[in-house]
Specification:
Elements (H helix, E strand, L loop, with lengths): L3 E2 L8 E11 L5 E11 L7 E4 L7 E4 L2 E2 L5 E3 L3 E4 L5 E10 L9 E5 L2 E5 L19 E10 L5 E4 L2 E8 L3 E12 L6 E4 L2 E8 L5 E8 L8 H18 L7 E7 L6 E2 L4 E5 L12 H16 L8 E2 L5 H19 L2 H20 L11 E2 L8 H34 L3 E2 L1 H12 L8 H4 L5 E9 L4 E9 L14 E8 L9 E2 L12 E5 L3 E7 L6 E4 L8 E3 L4 H10 L3 H24 L8 H12 L5 H7 L5 H6 L6 H18 L1 H10 L8 H18 L4 H13 L3 H11 L5 H14 L3 H13 L5 H8 L10 H14 L1 H4 L5 H14 L3 H8 L10 H16 L5 H11 L1
Parallel strand pairs: 2-12, 18-19, 19-21, 22-24, 25-32
Antiparallel strand pairs: 1-23, 2-3, 3-9, 4-8, 5-6, 5-9, 7-8, 10-11, 11-16, 12-15, 13-16, 14-15, 17-18, 20-21, 25-26, 26-30, 27-29, 27-31, 28-30
The chain binds (3S)-3-amino-4-(1H-indol-3-yl)butanoic acid and zinc ion (ZN).
Length: about 850
C-alpha cells in the first residue's frame, strides 16, 4: 500500500459548486445518481479526478451527453475525466449493496435501517467524487424507498419536500445550504421513531430537535435530549457559538465503528452514546453520553463551519473539539475530577502510543490508511495542545482567538497553522516555538530539582527537558512547556513567588506559569526563608512526564496541603506508584511484598476526610492502573505488577476493613443524577471493591446481596465488579442471573461480556474463547468485539500477556477473521500487539511472530497491514 504525505498536498483543481444526489434505496441493490456542477479553478486543461472505492460506473454524462471512453480513465480507485469544459455538469450513476457492507463505511444496513459513515473516506464508497475535505459543496439529496420498511427518510440540512410514489414507495428531498466536505454527508432511512423537543437560540431562532431510535428504545432518549440542550446553551454562553439550521437530528444505530459522527444537521451515533435510563446504564455511561452528545454538537462549529484542509490537520477539529467537550463536562461536574479522568486517560493510552512504534505528531506527516490516525495523539494530546495555548494566552485571550478563528475562516477548510495564527493575532502572544507541539512526536520528560539556600533566602528550581526518539524523529528539539507551579511553606501555605528580575511593584502571585523553553533552565525565587515543597505541573499544565525527587513525606504533605486539587490527587498517585514499584522489585527478588505504612496512613486519612467531596475521595483511593505502572518499568513484568497491585488492594482492604465498611454503609442511600450523587456512588462501590479484595466470605455475601438489591445499573455493576476476581457461587450466580435478565438488550449484554473479559481470575482466556462461541457474540458488531476482545486485549494485561502465548493466539486469530469483515475495527484490535519490544524475550518472540503472521497474510487490509508493519519496522 502507498503512503500519503503531507508534503505532497496540492490544492484542488476543480470546485464542485453543487451536487444533487438521488438514492433509490434497496438493501440488496441501491442505485445512486449524482449530478455535479463543476468549475475548473486553474488555467489549462487540468483533468477532473474523482475518488471511488469498490464502485462500478453505470453511466457517465457531461452536460447531458455521454462522455467518450477515450476521454476518461477508470482506475480501481480513481475516475479521471479529460478535456472537460471549464464549467460543466457531470452526471454519473453507481450501484451499491448496502446489506453486504460489513466494513460499516459508506452506505450500510444496521438493524434493518440504512445509514452512512463517510468520515474519513467513506463517501467514495457511495459515488465517484473529489472525496477530500477541502472541496466544499452545497448538497441536495433525494431519497426514495419502500414506505412500509422505511417510513423515515433523512439527510443533511433542512427538509424540502416529501411525497408518495407508485408501488408502495415514497421519497423525501433535503437541502443543506452550508457548503460542506463529502465526509459530512449522511443519510438515514428506516423504521425509526423520534423523541422531539425544541431549542430557542439566543438570537431567537427556533430549532427542531429530534433523536431517532428503534421503537423499543424510545424510553431511553431523555438523557441524550437534556444533554443536547445543555450543550447548545453552553456553547452559546461559553464560546458565543449558535446553531444554524432549522433542525438538528441524532440517529442511534447499533453497528458503528466509532462513538458518533458529526454529519451536518444529522449526527449518526453508536447507540451506546445515546440510549440510557438508570436501570440499563451506569453513571459512567450517563457522563459519557453527555460528553459525546456535546462533542458532536460542538463540531458544528469546530469541524463543520470551519473544517480541515486535509486529513493531516485532523487535530484542528478533533483536538479543539475534545478540548471544548472537556471544558463542558468540567462545568457540569467537579472540574478537578474531570481533569483527573482526562489525565488518566491520556497517561494510560496516549503516553504509550507516543512511546511506541505508532508514535506520530499531533499533525502527522504521512499515513497509509487515515482511519488508523483517529488516535489518542490526534484527539487527546491535540486537546492538551489547545489547553496549553489557553494557558499561555489566558482564558479571555483564548476566547478572542477562537472568535477570530471562526470569523476569519467560516466556510473554509484550513490548517492547524491557521488556528495558531488566529490565537497570535488576537492576543499578540508569540507562539512561534510552541508550534513544535504539532510537529514533534513523543512525550517530553521534565526533570526538576530544587535547592534552597537559607543564607540568601532563595530557592532555585532547575528544569531539564528531553524527549525520547520516536520513529522517523531520532533528534528532538526543546519544546515550549507551560509549567504551572507554587511553593508551599512548611505549614502548607503557598508562598509569594518573586522571581529574580521581577519589579518591586505588585504583590507577587502565589501561583505562576513558568515558560520552559530551553533544554535546561533555572528559576530563582526570592524571599524563601525555609525549604519549601514545590507543587509542580499544577492541573497537569502540559502533557509531559515530570520527575522531582520527592520523599514519601513530601508526597504525604502535598496530599494534605496542596491547594490544587489535581496535584493533591497526583501526590497520592506518585506515592502509590513508588510503593507499588517497590513491591514489584520485591516480588522479582523472590521476597514477600509488604504494605507500606505511609500509604496505609494516607489512605486512612483520606477515607476519614468527610469534608472532601466523595468523588475526589474515590479518585484518591484508586490505585494507579496496571498499564500506568507498566509505563514506569524498563521491561514490563505483567505478572509482578498484577500481583503487587492485587496484594496492595487486599492488604488495604484488610487493614482498613472497618473504615471501608463504615464509609460504604454511610453511602448506602445515594440517589440522584447529579455529580455529587454520582461521586457518592462511586465511593460506595470502591469501598465494596476493597472490602471484597481479600476474598472473604462475608464481604462476598455483602456484594451478592448488593447485587440482589441494586436499584440501578450502577449498583448492579458495582456489585458484579467486586465479585469478578473471586470465582465461586456468588460470582457465578450473579453472572448467570445478569445474562438471563439482559440477554435481549445489546448494550447491557456488552457489559456482561466485558466484565468477564476483564477478570483477573484464573481461566479468563478460556472463558473469553468460550464466549466467542456464545450465541450473542458476533464479529460483525463492533461494540461486541470491543466488549469481549478489546477488553481482553487492552484491559487485561495479565491474561492477554500470559506466558504460554495463548492470549496472543486468540487475539491474532480474531484479528485475521475480523479483517475480512471490518478492517477498521480489526486494525484497532491489532494495536494491542504493537508494543512487543517492551516485554521479556519470550513474550517478545511470541508477539513478533503474531505480527509477522498478520503481515504475511495475503489479501489483508491496508489498515491492519499498516499497524502490524509499523510495529515490526
Ligand atoms: N469525527 C468522527 C470520527 C469518526 C470516524 C472516523 C473514522 C471512521 C469512523 C468514524 N466514525 C466517526 C467522530 C468524532 O470524533 O467526533
Ligand atoms: Zn470529534
Amino acid at each position: 500500500p502507498r503512503a500519503i504525505r503531507l508534503e505532497d498536498y496540492a490544492p484542488p483543481q476543480w470546485r464542485v459548486d453543487t451536487v444533487h444526489l438521488d438514492f433509490d434505496l434497496d438493501p440488496e441493490r441501491t442505485r445512486v445518481r449524482s449530478r455535479m456542477e463543476l468549475t475548473r479553478l486553474v488555467d489549462g486543461s487540468a483533468p477532473l479526478v474523482l475518488n471511488g472505492q469498490d464502485l462500478g460506473l453505470e453511466g457517465l454524462q457531461v452536460d447531458g451527453r455521454d462522455w467518450p471512453e477515450d476521454r476518461r480513465s477508470l482506475e480501481p480507485e480513481r475516475l479521471v475525466l479529460h478535456d472537460l469544459p471549464a464549467t460543466c455538469v457531470v452526471e454519473l450513476e453507481t450501484v451499491l449493496e448496502p446489506r453486504a457492507n460489513t466494513a460499516l463505511e459508506g452506505l450500510y444496513v444496521s438493524g434493518g435501517n440504512f445509514c452512512t459513515q463517510c468520515e474519513a473516506e467513506g463517501f467514495r464508497r457511495i459515488t465517484w467524487f473529489p472525496d477530500r475535505p477541502d472541496v466544499l459543496t452545497v448538497y441536495t439529496v433525494r431519497l426514495e424507498a419502500d414506505r412500509a420498511t422505511c417510513p423515515v427518510l433523512l439527510s443533511n440540512g433542512n427538509p424540502v419536500e416529501t411525497g408518495d410514489l407508485p408501488g408502495g414507495r415514497h421519497y423525501a428531498v433535503w437541502h443543506d445550504p452550508f457548503p460542506k466536505p463529502s465526509y459530512l454527508f449522511a443519510l438515514v432511512a428506516g423504521d425509526l421513531v423520534c423523541q422531539q423537543d425544541r431549542f430557542t437560540t439566543r438570537s431567537g431562532r427556533e430549532v427542531d430537535l429530534r433523536i431517532y431510535v428503534q421503537r423499543h428504545n424510545l424510553d431511553r432518549c431523555d438523557h441524550a435530549m437534556v444533554s443536547l440542550k445543555k450543550a447548545m446553551r453552553w456553547d452559546e454562553e461559553t464560546f458565543g457559538r449558535e446553531y444554524d439550521l432549522d433542525i438538528y437530528m441524532i440517529v442511534a444505530v447499533d453497528d458503528f465503528n466509532m462513538g458518533a459522527m458529526e454529519n451536518k444537521g444529522l449526527n449518526v451515533f453508536n447507540s451506546k452514546y445515546v440510549l440510557a435510563r438508570p436501570e440499563t446504564a451506569t453513571d459512567d455511561d450517563f457522563v459519557a453520553i453527555e460528553g459525546v452528545i456535546a462533542h458532536e454538537y460542538f463540531h458544528n462549529w469546530s469541524g463543520n463551519r470551519v473544517t480541515c484542509r486535509d486529513w493531516f490537520q485532523l487535530s484542528l477539529k478533533e483536538g479543539l473539539t475534545v478540548f471544548r467537550d472537556q471544558e463542558f463536562t468540567a462545568d457540569q461536574s467537579l472540574r478537578a475530577v474531570k481533569r483527573i479522568h482526562d489525565v488518566q486517560h491520556l497517561r494510560s493510552l496516549q503516553f504509550p502510543e507516543d512511546a511506541g512504534p505508532m508514535a506520530h505528531p499531533v499533525r502527522p506527516r504521512s499515513y497509509i490508511e487515515i482511519n488508523n490516525f483517529y488516535t489518542m495523539t490526534v484527539y487527546e494530546k491535540g486537546a492538551e495542545v489547545v489547553r496549553m495555548i489557553q494557558t499561555l494566552v489566558g482564558r479571555e485571550g483564548f476566547r478572542r482567538g477562537l472568535d477570530l478563528y471562526f470569523q476569519r475562516h467560516d466556510g473554509q477548510a484550513v490548517t492547524t497553522e491557521d488556528f495558531v495564527r488566529a490565537m497570535e493575532d488576537a492576543t499578540g502572544r508569540d507562539l512561534g516555538p510552541f508550534r513544535l507541539w504539532y510537529e514533534q512526536a513523543g512525550t517530553p520528560r521534565l526533570e526538576v530539582d530544587g535547592h534552597h539556600d537559607a543564607a540568601t533566602a532563595t530557592y532555585r528550581l532547575t528544569v531539564r527537558q528531553s524527549c525520547p526518539p520516536t520513529p522517523d524523529q531520532p533528534e528532538k528539539r526543546p519544546m515550549h512547556i507551560p509549567l504551572r507551579m507554587a511553593l508551599l511553606d512548611p505549614s502548607g501555605r503557598p508562598l509569594p513567588l518573586r522571581l529574580h528580575g521581577d519589579g518591586d511593584g505588585e504583590a507577587p502571585p502565589v501561583e505562576r506559569v513558568l515558560d520552559v523553553t530551553e533544554a535546561e533552565q533555572t528559576f530563582v525565587f526570592q524571599g524563601v526563608e525555609a525549604p519549601p515543597v514545590p507543587s509542580l505541573l499544577r492541573g497537569f499544565s502540559a502533557p509531559v512526564k515530570l520527575q522531582f525527587p520527592y520523599t514519601h513525606e513530601d508526597l504525604a504533605f502535598l496530599m494534605a496541603h496542596d491547594g490544587d486539587d489535581f496535584n493533591r490527587w497526583e501526590a497520592g498517585q506518585q506515592l502509590a506508584v513508588k510503593v507499588l514499584l517497590a513491591q514489584v522489585r520485591a516480588l522479582q527478588a523472590g521476597e514477600e511484598p509488604r504494605l507500606d505504612p505511609a500509604l496505609e496512613a494516607a489512605f486512612a486519612r483520606v477515607l476519614e476526610d468527610e469534608a472532601l467531596d466523595a468523588a475526589l475521595v474515590a479518585e484518591a483511593l484508586t490505585l494507579p492502573g496496571e498499564g500506568y505502572l507498566a509505563e514506569q518499568m524498563e521491561v514490563v513484568d505483567v505478572d509482578a505488577i498484577h500481583r503487587a497491585r492485587r496484594f496492595t488492594r487486599q492488604a488495604l482492604g484488610r487493614a482498613l476493613a472497618g473504615r471501608w465498611r463504615a464509609r460504604h454503609d454511610a453511602l448506602a442511600d445515594s440517589r440522584g443524577g447529579d455529580a455529587v450523587a454520582m461521586g457518592r456512588r462511586r465511593l460506595r462501590d470502591l469501598c465494596l471493591a476493597y472490602l471484597c479484595a481479600p476474598g472473604e466470605k462475608e464481604a462476598l455475601a455483602l456484594a451478592r446481596s448488593r447485587y440482589e438489591q441494586a436499584q440501578d445499573m450502577t449498583g448492579t455493576m458495582g456489585a458484579l465488579r467486586a465479585l469478578m476476581d473471586h470465582p465461586g457461587p456468588e460470582r457465578d450466580e450473579a453472572l448467570a442471573d445478569f445474562e438471563a435478565r439482559w440477554r435481549q438488550d445489546p448494550l447491557v449484554l456488552d457489559k456482561w461480556f466485558a466484565l468477564q473479559a476483564a477478570s483477573g481470575a484464573p481461566g479468563t482466556r478460556e472463558r473469553v474463547e468460550a464466549l466467542m462461541a456464545h450465541p450473542g457474540f458476533s464479529l460483525r458488531n463492533p461494540n461486541r468485539v470491543r466488549a469481549l476482545l478489546g477488553t481482553f486485549a487492552m484491559g487485561n494485561p495479565v491474561h492477554f500477556h500470559a506466558a504460554d502465548g495463548e492470549g496472543y493466539r486468540l487475539v491474532t486469530e480474531a484479528i485475521l477473521e475480523l479483517d475480512a469483515l471490518n478492517p477498521q475495527v480489526a486494525a484497532r484490535l491489532a494495536t494491542s500487539l504493537v508494543r512487543w519490544r517492551r516485554f521479556d524475550a519470550a513474550r517478545q518472540e511470541r508477539m513478533r511472530a503474531a505480527l509477522e503472521r498478520i503481515v504475511a497474510r495475503p489479501g489483508g487490509s491496508p489498515d491492519v497491514y499498516e499497524v502490524a508493519s509499523r510495529a515490526l519496522a
